[in-house]
Write a sequence for this structure.
């Protein structure tokens, strides 16, 4: 090994605790950032799903309220016209 490599190794060994602590902190920050992005996406998906369901429910209610009620009374009229009235 060259003297430069030996010096680098000694420097690493001397500051190993600090270096490992920094790496551990960065790993936690990365995991936290990933978790925050996933949580934000999950919340966005939930809000958009609820909004879509509410819009569809409102549209269905409006369509149901606006549609005229049609009643088929052909069978009843046939029955009534078939009756004979006796006095």
């Amino acid at each position: 090994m060259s003297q430069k490599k030996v010096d680098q190794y000694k420097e690493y060994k001397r500051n190993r605790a600090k270096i490992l602590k920094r790496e551990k902190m960065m790993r936690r920050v990365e995991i936290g950032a990933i978790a925050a992005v996933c949580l934000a996406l999950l919340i966005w998906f939930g809000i958009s799903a609820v909004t879509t369901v509410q819009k569809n429910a409102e549209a269905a209610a409006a369509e149901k309220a606006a549609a005229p009620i049609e009643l088929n009374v052909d069978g009843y009229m046939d029955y009534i016209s078939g009756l004979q009235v006796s006095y």
Q: What stands out?
A: The chain has a mean pLDDT of 90. Helices lie at 3-14, 16-66, 74-82. The chain has three helices and no strands. Residues 5 and 11 are 10 Å apart (CA to CA).
